[in-house]
Amino acid sequence: MINDAGNEEYRQDLLKELEDEEHDRWTPGSFGCHELLDRIHIMTNQFESLVVQHNSCILQPEWFHEACRIRDQIDALYQKVGAIHL
Questions:
Q1: How many CA atoms lie within 13 A of 16 on its CB side?
Q2: Which of 3, 66, 62, 48 is nearest to 11 (CA)?
């Protein structure tokens, strides 16, 4: 698992790849940001149906609770992006 410092280093590397590529195209209120919101929504639904509701996951309480926590974190990201984007 990458720690916060590692995450920021990774983000900085990704930012360098953007090379000032029309940043407005990806800011809140843009179609690009709406695309991100849609992808997070799809991931939440897919994670729920493919992982949380998977029989192997349901049979293992620890896995199930971890999967629910991850689903909730993805949904929380959706709410954060949506609050700024919309």
A1: 6
A2: 3
Which two structure tokens, joined as six digits, stand for 16? Answer: 């360098």
pLDDT in tens, the chain (86 residues): 557 888 999 998 888 888 676 788 889 999 999 999 999 999 999 999 999 999 999 999 999 999 999 999 999 999 999 999 97
pTM exceeds cut of 0.70: yes
For 86, the 3-state DSSP assignment is coil
Residue with tokens 């179609």: 31
Which of 53, 54, 52, 59 lies closest to 74, judged by CA? Answer: 52
